[in-house]
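Suppose you are handed a protein chain with no further information: no name, no annotation, nothing but its sequence. What can you learn? This example shows the usual starting point.
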Amino acid sequence: MNLTVLKIAAAKGCILVSHDVRTMPRYFHEFIHRQASPGLILVPQKLALSAAIEELLLLWMASESNEWVNQICYLPV
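A reasonable first move is to predict its three-dimensional structure. Written in structure tokens, the prediction is:
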């Protein structure tokens, strides 16, 4: 399932945002050994929604999408 989601995001050129901080990093590292990924942002479920939104907006305003290729970012930054 995780590899499928990563493939879909890569095919669409989208950075994936996920709550799956437990297993997604392992699948992400496996995936980027085969093909490039636009990136992965991990948001812990216990992070307040307002804080997650603020963090995502900050990343969106302060960076370019090409900076996230094959990178994992854990929120909060």
